[in-house]
Amino acid sequence: MTTDSSNPARLAFITGASSGIGQALAWHAYQRGWSLALVARRGDLIRQWAVQQGLDSRRFAVYEADVGEPDSIIAAAQRCMQQQGLPDLVVANAGISWGVDTALREDIDAMRQVMDVNVLGVAATFHAFITPMARRGHGCLAGVASVAGLRGLPGHGAYCASKAAAIAYCESLRGELRGSSVKVTTVLPGYVDTPLTRDNRYGMPFLMTPQAFAAKAWRAMQAGRSYAIIPWQMAWAGRLMRWLPNAVFDRLVAGRKRKHRHLDRR
Length: 266
Description:
Blueprint: E1 11-15, H1 20-31, E2 35-40, H2 43-53, E3 60-64, H3 70-83, E4 89-92, H4 105-136, E5 139-144, H5 157-176, E6 182-189, H6 210-222, E7 227-230, H7 232-243, H8 246-253
Parallel strand pairs: 1-2, 1-4, 2-3, 4-5, 5-6, 6-7
Helix pairs in contact: 1-6, 3-4, 4-5
């Protein structure tokens, strides 16, 4: 085990920790001497993983919560502070990615669920920690958004809109906390090989493993960066996407396969 801190008892609170990016970030933090507060709707999956990895039971706790229900994730945050103390790092990572067709009434309900998890879930995850962190004088609130939040993609109206909103929300919060010594980091992954992306019907350039992404995201959070697009190739692609004229962008995405509708996969 390596450590990047003189205080190996630092605590990371991570949502969506049962798989994918959240699980990879948890393992990366643990290997560096951090203690973990792991959050997911299904705590049994986290506990199974913890046993498989041989995690020291004194260095982690599991909290079952649904970030789409504000009172649920806020209660989990409060339990964490009571049982483990105030985290040094909070990662609002939990998210869902569903294709939608706005012409269909039932997809409006699906879109609301995506917004509840991917936007309000980030704010609700941070909520309980903001005042205690500001009072203490340090801490980092990291929101995991997506490069998909930079432009709208056909069939991705819910996901792209939610991630654009998450980016704007984190930027707003960063301004509100300026001078408090509480950092706000917005992390924008490109394509990462997780359960959310494995059934995508289109090419995924610069695809990363969750472990490779976690290492780069961890460095960005520890450096106190306000904004990080990962990997660097996607950062350049993201900048180009933002500046392309609409007519050019529309031609580029014309005919692109859409993401599966959530209801079509039931």
